[in-house]
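sry for the spam today, last one i promise. struct tokens for design, 262 residues
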């Protein structure tokens, strides 16, 4: 992995080293404080660009275009909430997706299943273990966002999301989020409404650089990617891990996300 990853800065292949323990402490603290951590340059920048370039022809010819209007919850209605409540404001999301079975020998596939990475992620997330997904489509997705496109405001369904940025756009593509806006006991609809009106003073913005590994706790932290500007698309790999083995999507979920079941 030395040819792909900066293991001098991020020695996750040496978990007993003092350097790796210091890295773990840093990631643990950032995750606790902000709900996320970033390892900038984890994937060497030249490798990130080569990986993006490798996928562009397939992205142009065979990607699935996912376009939908939705609210922050991806639900048509919520019990006890009026349909015109500002927390249910509608937005547009558009992206283009390649699935794991379309990636060929792209290095993101090798990185995704590399045991030291999976073990490090489990440690920082406070999990006894994590497992790669068995689903041949969903385990890794690579998504592209072109000019004017965006991943709009939403809460994640899964507890954690792990991404690896391969190519940044010329402008836009900032990651905006608001840590712990809701809890399991308090949906905080009024707070959600303030966020969607751009009135939340605790909104945070990150502009990731190519090669950045991002680990994000998004189930109670709303987030979006701002609109892409310019002629260079944003390309990002999304890794799916679970705390139990053998996880797959249903056929309905595959068709909804990817337009096909196999």
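last one done:
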């Amino acid at each position: 992995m030395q040819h792909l990853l900066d293991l001098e800065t991020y020695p996750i292949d040496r978990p007993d080293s003092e350097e790796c323990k210091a890295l773990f402490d840093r990631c643990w603290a950032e995750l606790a404080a902000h709900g996320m951590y970033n390892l900038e340059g984890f994937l060497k920048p030249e490798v990130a660009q080569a990986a993006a370039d490798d996928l562009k022809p397939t992205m142009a010819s065979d990607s699935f275009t996912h376009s939908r209007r939705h609210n922050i919850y991806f639900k048509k209605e919520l019990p006890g909430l009026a349909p015109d409540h500002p927390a249910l404001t509608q937005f547009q999301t558009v992206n283009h997706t390649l699935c794991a079975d379309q990636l060929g020998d792209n290095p993101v596939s090798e990185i995704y299943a590399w045991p030291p990475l999976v073990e490090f992620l489990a440690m920082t997330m406070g999990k006894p273990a994590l497992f790669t997904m068995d689903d041949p489509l969903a385990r890794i997705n690579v998504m592209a966002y072109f000019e004017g496109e965006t991943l709009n405001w939403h809460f994640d369904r899964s507890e954690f999301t792990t991404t690896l940025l391969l190519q940044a756009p010329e402008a836009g593509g900032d990651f905006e989020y608001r840590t712990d806006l809701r809890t399991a006991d308090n949906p905080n609809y009024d707070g959600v409404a303030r966020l969607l009106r751009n009135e939340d003073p605790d909104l945070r913005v990150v502009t990731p650089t190519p090669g950045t590994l991002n680990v994000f706790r998004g189930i109670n932290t709303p987030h979006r990617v701002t609109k892409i500007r310019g002629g260079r698309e944003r390309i990002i790999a999304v890794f799916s891990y679970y705390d139990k083995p053998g996880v797959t999507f249903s056929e309905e979920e595959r068709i909804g996300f990817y337009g096909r079941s196999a």
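The chain has six helices and 13 strands. ok im logging off now
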